[in-house]
Design goal:
The protein is an alpha+beta fold and 142 residues long. It has a single domain, classed as 3-Layer(aba) Sandwich (Aminopeptidase), CATH 3.40.630.30. The chain is built from 4 helices and 7 strands. It has a 7-stranded mixed sheet with strand order 1-2-3-4-5-7-6, with helices on both faces. A hairpin with a 2-residue loop joins β3 and β4. The chain starts with a strand and ends with a strand. Bound molecules: coenzyme A. Coenzyme A binds next to β4, α3 and α4. Coenzyme A (COA) binds next to β4, α3 and α4.
Length: 142
């Protein structure tokens, strides 16, 4: 397993991962736009040439925002999100960020367990943010 920066060549595979992970899956155009932003940092985790997962953050002044993280189902529970979290947290620190923030569905227990493991705690709740479901806003100091 290796973690490296996402390139345009990865986008078709990343879209496949994304479509299996999210109900509001992104198309290729969204990823082209995302990786083109000068404040965005996207990484993939690759296993024998196959994209197993990806994660992306924005670093804006002292605050990093976790935009998306996903592992494709057949590779889940094998430590891929752990590797991606280490990479994005390190990247945020290197870019001078002092904290990382994210939003997560309150029903998403696997993601919340992942974030808590990496020191995130809930700082507020956005009522009905996801089509009626509450979002937990979490933060970790870097
Ligand atoms: C959340 C997600 C990214 C975890 O990916 P993963 O590669 O399977 O995670 P890992 O194997 O690296 O596990 C890391 C930690 O996450 C937590 N975790 C992962 N899957 C879990 C599950 N099914 N139930 C509870 N906790 C879980 C655990 O804390 C785990 O640490 P541990 O192994 O020490 O117990 C994956 O389930 C996923 O892609 N979900 C759909 C997309 C999503 O919800 N993304 C987050 C919202 S933006």
């Amino acid at each position: 397993m290796t973690v490296r920066k996402m390139t345009e060549e990865d986008i078709a595979s990343v879209v496949t991962v994304d479509s299996k992970a999210f109900s509001d899956a992104w198309g290729e155009t969204s990823f082209y736009e995302e990786i083109g932003k000068d404040y965005s940092h996207y990484f993939v985790c690759e296993s024998d040439g196959e994209i197993a997962g990806y994660a992306g953050i924005w670093c804006i002044y002292e605050t990093a925002e976790l935009i998306r993280i996903a592992t494709t189902p057949k590779f889940q529970k094998r430590g891929i999100a752990n590797m991606l979290m280490q990479e994005i947290l390190g990247c945020a620190k290197e870019n001078g960020c002092e904290r990382m923030m994210l939003e997560v569905r309150r029903s998403n227990a696997p993601a919340q367990a992942l974030y808590k493991k990496f020191g995130f705690g809930e700082i507020s709740v956005r009522k009905g943010y996801y089509n009626g479901e509450d979002a937990s806003i979490m933060e970790s100091k870097l």
